[in-house]
From TrEMBL:
Domain GST N-terminal: 16-90
Organism: Ceraceosorus bombacis
Name of the protein described by the UniProt record: GST N-terminal domain-containing protein
Region of interest (Disordered), residue spans: 274-308
Segments of skewed composition (Polar residues): 296-308
One Pfam assignment: DUF7962
The DUF7962 domain, residue ranges: 130-241
Length: 353
């Protein structure tokens, strides 16, 4: 009889996303690293998404959404922080992705790969691959898509920009003679944060096979490329995360109603939720001038400018916590956490769509 611990009856972590989203894949990579079993709620590429807006009160547009122990976390830059704090180094889970340079790693990924590199790669997607419905939906809230039409009409401009980034990665790996980007014993957050966009480009979009050709099915001989060290590094990142993912406890996908029921149950039973509500703090000199209990909007500063609104519980220089009431579950509430960086926090009446 095996002495391995049986997986819990219900998952601590529930992820909302759709298969084509690279940021959904990034969160799944992080969960694999930290060895966190999780259930998935599949959402559509285009709203409405009632499993979020009606069941949980989430009006924020971007995917993925992470529910952990009955609390909701938006944006992968914050999701990695809560996973690191909750699981890193704990028995049965993965090691820390960060060293003493944690803040620099987070900033590098948030600004370089999540934004600059992602925009370049998205500009390499052939226009025919995007449905009119999808483009019209994204244009309605994303100025970057409107501004990027010219670049997509001339993909060589984006390809030239991509080459500069691949050159930087190749040079870093060549000069360090290390397996990972920061010459760490194990991969770091920068490895996962850089690899997810390039893996999306290489395996899903297949947009630049002359630069990043697909690996062979048996992952044996790597194909020829101007960036052989980048190819090898991407392959190693995928192999490591794939091995961890295959060892995770498996949970069936959930429908929105069932997932909301579990999340609300966890929130009601969780001591951490009550502690956070009681200890919620806002600095008196915060530039927002907001106070605890104010109806507040948190809006991305770049794209997807649809705000998340709720009652302000806590506000620090790096994070904002709101209490939201799901429309389908009157009398119940959830804590929603968002990063402060790249988001504007304002009174709800001042939010701009």
């Amino acid at each position: 009889m095996s002495d391995a611990a049986a997986p819990p009856a219900s998952p601590r972590a529930i992820v909302y996303g759709y298969a084509g989203s690279p940021f959904f894949k990034k969160l799944q990579d992080l969960l694999a690293w930290y060895r966190v079993g999780h259930a998935v709620v599949q959402v559509s590429m285009i709203p409405p998404r009632p499993m979020l807006s009606q069941e949980l009160g989430i009006t924020y547009r971007r995917i993925p959404v992470l529910a952990l122990d009955g609390q909701l976390y938006l944006d992968t830059s914050l999701q990695v922080e809560v996973l690191e704090k909750t699981f890193a180094g704990k028995q049965g889970h993965g090691n820390s992705l960060f060293g003493p340079d944690a803040e620099l790693q987070k900033r590098l990924v948030a600004n370089w790969t999540d934004r600059e590199m992602f925009a370049i790669i998205a500009g390499l997607i052939p226009p025919a691959a995007w449905s009119k419905e999808f483009i019209d939906d994204r244009k309605s809230f994303s100025p970057a898509l409107r501004l990027g039409e010219r670049a997509r009409a001339r993909p060589e401009l984006n390809k030239a920009q991509l080459i500069t980034h691949l050159h930087s990665l190749e040079k870093t790996l060549r000069e360090s003679r290390a397996e990972w980007l920061l010459a760490t014993p194990e991969m770091s957050y920068v490895d996962i944060g850089c690899a997810f966009t390039l893996t999306w480009l290489q395996l899903s979009l297949k947009a630049v096979p002359d630069l990043l050709p697909r690996p062979s099915k048996d992952n044996g001989q790597l194909p020829n490329s101007p960036f052989p060290l980048v190819l090898r590094w991407l392959n190693e990142v995928r192999k490591e995360l794939s091995a961890r993912r295959s060892a995770l406890p498996q949970f069936a996908n959930l429908e929105g109603e069932e997932a909301a029921r579990l999340i609300l149950q966890q929130a009601a039973a969780g001591q951490s939720v009550r502690r956070q509500e009681a200890a919620g703090h806002i600095q008196a000199d915060d530039p927002s001038a907001l106070k605890r209990g104010d109806l507040t909007s948190v809006t991305p500063r770049d794209t997807g400018r649809i705000p998340q609104t709720g009652t302000l519980v806590a506000l620090t220089p790096t994070q904002v916590t709101l209490r939201v009431e799901p429309p389908k579950h009157p009398g119940q509430s959830l804590l929603v956490h968002l990063p402060r960086s790249h988001f504007d926090v304002t009174p709800a009446t001042q939010a701009k769509l």
